[in-house]
Each structure stands twice: as structure tokens, then as C-alpha cells.
Amino acid sequence: MEFVTFEQDGVPCPGLLSADRKQVCGLAEAGLGDWASLNDFIAAADPELTARAAEAAAHLEGTPVEQVRLLSPIPRPSHDIICVGVNYRAHLEESEAAMGKIEHQDSVYFSKRAHIMTPDGATVDGHLDLDPCLDYEVELAVVIGKECRDVAPEDAEDYIFGYSVFNDMSARSLQKKHNQWYRGKSLDGFSIMGPTLVHKSALPFPIQVDVRSRVNGELRQDSNTRLFLKDIPHLIAELSHGITLEPGDIIATGTPAGVGLGFDPPRWLKSGDTVECEVQGVGLLTTHIK
């Protein structure tokens, strides 16, 4: 079961993707209620509503996907993206080789501005005039389904709505220039997620899926979430202790080795490049660099 947001008469419309992934239908048309956004639906999605959505997806007759413009599934998040840094050992090592020792005793957390989320297939301004050191990072995104605080690790899945593919685009010179990573991670267009939001029921938990990226067809990153330094239950438990997480909050769980920064010399993105980020069972997210 996959959820989408698509443009209908110039207005974002939360919707459902058919089981064969060929058609989309607004949530209201699918008999699931009239919701202003996918965030609103997520906040109300109890087991009964979720079951109705699964049934609707199985028999959905809507508009062919190629006839609509898919937006990012959550075009305007309620909060900035919660990002997990260096959550694969090999990426930690390549990052430290390029940027120096990253001091930490537990997970590294930072936020990424999410003014408007960039959708699948978009052409992104690389802001190469500000920073020529443009990089890609494929990540599994976890979307919170229920308000929560002080979650025990064994209960983490209860508070997840679903998953998407995230590209944590990064301006590396700006990232290194400032003491915090926020600016280098947050230029307009750099929060890229899609193409859909896959409901958690589609994947067994704990999640062990392949995570890959390609640049112009060349495989750059190739790992699996079983190699996380800190798994999803740990992340949700730690983040929610003292912090309230809300429906629709997005956690980008970290990227594996193989980013442009990790090569010698570095292999930065340039105008005309195409980046493909893929998470097994979740989707393929394509980005073109302006």
C-alpha cells in the first residue's frame, strides 16, 4: 500500500497508488475521507482506516500515473527533517578521512530545512555558484504515524506510519565551513523525497533492505540497513525521550559509504548529472542537477 500526493487543478491532493502502481486516486475519491494533506490523514489513520485504504488500493480505479504530476508524498512537512549522521561505519570512516574526526559517543543528529520537499524526477538547482562541492546521499526515510514521547525500542514500530526514499543533498564546503551542518544541508531543493510513501505493512520489521545510489548510471553506494550503527528502534526511542514526535515527522536514517566526498579525489555532482536513489521495497527516486 502506497500513498502519494499529486497535483490536481494546481492544488496538492493526497492520494493512493493502485496495487499495480499504474493509477492514482484522491483519498476522498477512494472513500477514505476528505483530507487537506497526507499529514492530516496520517494523524487519523487508525487500524480501521488503514484497512479500508488497503482494500481501496487493491481495487482502485483512478487516473493513470503518467497523466498527473506527482509531488513529494509530504510536500510541506510540519517540521524540519530529523537527520541521522554517519549511521553506517564505512560512511563514518570515509567522512572522517575527508572532514576530520567526528566526535560523538552515540548517534549524530542534525536537522535539515524542509521549505518545500523536492519530488521524484525533479531538476534541482545545485547552487553551484555558492558551493561547487555538491554531493548526494541515499537514505531510508521513516515517517512517524502517531504522536509519541518516551517510546521503548520494542514499541517503535507501533509509531511508524511508513517509509520513503530520501536524498540528503549536501553542499560540502558550506557543511565544513560552519560549525553545524545545517546550512550546507538546507539549501532550497536539497530535501528530496519520494516517489511514494509506503505503508509499514509492506515491509517486515526490523527492516533489512538494500540501499543504493547511482550517478549517471554508475553504482556509487551499495549497502543494507542491517548495517546501521543504530537501528530504527534505537533511533525512535532515543529521539522520543524528552522530545515529542508528531504524525508526519520524517527521520532520515543515514547514508552508506560511496558519497562523492569519500572518493580521492572527490567526485562532486555537476550540472547535467542524474542521481538515482533506491531503497529495496520502497522505491526509486531520481533527481536531475540543473
Rounded radius of gyration (Å): 18 Å
| Helix-and-strand structural type | alpha+beta
Mean pLDDT: 94
Q: What helical percentage do the residues reach?
A: 10-25%
Query: Residue ranges: pLDDT <50 for 5 or more in a row?
Result: none
Number of helices: 6
Distance between the termini: 33 Å
Strand content: 25-35%
> Could you give a short account of the major beta sheet?
11 strands, mixed
Number of strands: 18
H-E order: EEEHHEEEHEEEEEEHHEEEHEEE
What does this entry look like structurally?
The chain has helices at about 40-45, 45-60, 90-100, 170-175, 180-185, 230-240, and strands at about 1-10, 10-15, 25, 65, 70, 80-85, 110, 125, 135, 140-145, 160-170, 170, 190-200, 210-215, 220-225, 250, 275-280, 285-290. With about 290 residues, the chain is an alpha+beta fold. The strands form three sheets. Strands 1, 2, 3, 4, 5, 6, 7, 10, 11, 13 and 16 form an eleven-stranded mixed β-sheet that branches.
